[in-house]
Amino acid sequence: MKFLYMLSQSAYFWLAGIIYLIVMESIALYYQYVLQFYPCALCVQVRAWVVGAILSSAISVYFRSNFWIRFAGLSFTLIFIGGGFYTSYYAWGVENGTVISTCSMGAGFPGFMPLDEWIPFFFGANGPCGQSPDMWFGLSMVESLLITLGLPGIVLAALWLLHLPHAVLSYIRLARA
Questions:
Q1: Check: CATH 1.25.40.20 for 2-176?
Q2: Coil, strand or helix at 134
Q3: Of 46, 60, 148, 166, which alpha carbon lies 20 to 30 A from 158's?
Q4: How confident is the model at residue 10 (pLDDT cuts 50, 70, 90)?
Q5: pLDDT digits (tens, 9 = 90+) for 121-137
């Protein structure tokens, strides 16, 4: 357990996570622009969650020696990965017919952050929901997302739980002072 706790203080851990997430985004762009599989609204929302995880990981790698910033970065990265996983799970339900969706051609971003208007080549939703392309091992892209976001989510959750006792004890010490 000490190894895992120390792992979160390593720049290599955070950089490996950033590279992993950038590779995920690169594969999505390859499928979009080379193979002509256009993303749906749910797919670009997953992209936004992954970009959030990249940004919070970048802050975490820079401030990894400060416990509170590292804990906040770990928390935000876990939230972003969890949001991406949840959206992927919802898309999986749409793909398999277990969720009835009114998924439209628009990206569905809020008015205060219209990513599809600001960066349309990356966040534009031009494809229909429920039809993700096949990838490796006979899995659809949505099924692959569940795996590629689920595994890092488990690691991040374990690291967060390892940091939690230190955060609680530190908070109690601060409250007493």
A1: no
A2: strand
A3: 46
A4: confident
A5: 888 888 777 778 888 88
